[in-house]
């Protein structure tokens, strides 16, 4: 009788292990696309949608060099746009997502944007962000990015 209970228990546990190990989410655990840091990397951001933001960030293409430390330099690749620079903080939030907070320093004011980067592979993905205005978020921008 004890032998029968033990075999039944082992069969049930074995089935749970088999079913638990045979799911389609294995790729989610292997794909860790978001980097731990942006420092020393350069990305091309193509901003396609802009609503309710100051003119410093408009639709267009920017090359953003995240320099060592916490500074960046954004150079436009689209005509009639201005370069800008400032400080940034990047935090990896999930395996495939990070949060980028960057300050645009254009005297006489500083503007702070918060952007979520969704990595679809190791070097590119989609972004969506807003302007931080005091304690509220206003405006919206979205687009794509790719490491260059």
Kindly name the structural category: alpha+beta
Order of strands, main sheet, comes to 1-2-3-4-5-6-7-8
Principal-axis shape: globular
* Rg of Cα set: 23 Å
In total, how many domains does the architecture comprise? 1
**SS summary, helix count:** 2
Oligomer class: single chain
User: How much is the average pLDDT?
Assistant: 81
Explain how this protein is built.
By secondary structure, the chain is of the alpha+beta class. It has one domain (41-147). The protein has two helices and eight strands; from the N terminus they run ααββββββββ. It has helices at residues 2-21, 26-30; strands at 41-51, 60-66, 71-76, 84-94, 97-106, 109-119, 124-133, 136-147. Strands 1-2-3-4-5-6-7-8 form an eight-stranded antiparallel β-barrel. The chain is globular, with a radius of gyration of 23 Å. Mean pLDDT is 81; it is low at 5-26.
Pick out its properties:
single chain, 148 residues, alpha+beta
Could you provide a short overview of the structure?
With about 150 residues, this protein is α+β, with helices and mostly antiparallel strands.
Question: What's the SSE blueprint?
Answer:
Elements: H1 2-21, H2 26-30, E1 41-51, E2 60-66, E3 71-76, E4 84-94, E5 97-106, E6 109-119, E7 124-133, E8 136-147
Antiparallel strand pairs: 1-2, 1-8, 2-3, 3-4, 4-5, 5-6, 6-7, 7-8
């Amino acid at each position: 009788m004890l032998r029968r209970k033990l075999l039944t228990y082992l069969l049930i546990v074995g089935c749970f292990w088999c079913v638990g190990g045979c799911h389609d989410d294995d790729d989610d655990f292997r794909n860790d696309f978001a980097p731990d840091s942006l420092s020393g990397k350069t990305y091309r951001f193509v901003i396609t949608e802009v609503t309710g933001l100051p003119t410093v960030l408009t639709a267009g293409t920017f090359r953003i060099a995240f320099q060592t430390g916490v500074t960046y330099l954004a150079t436009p690749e689209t005509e009639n746009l201005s370069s800008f620079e400032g400080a940034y903080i990047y935090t990896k939030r999930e395996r495939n997502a990070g949060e980028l907070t960057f300050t645009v320093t254009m005297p006489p004011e500083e503007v702070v944007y918060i952007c979520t980067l969704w990595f679809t592979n190791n070097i590119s993905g989609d972004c969506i962000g807003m302007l931080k205005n005091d304690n509220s978020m206003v405006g919206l921008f979205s687009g794509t990015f790719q490491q260059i």
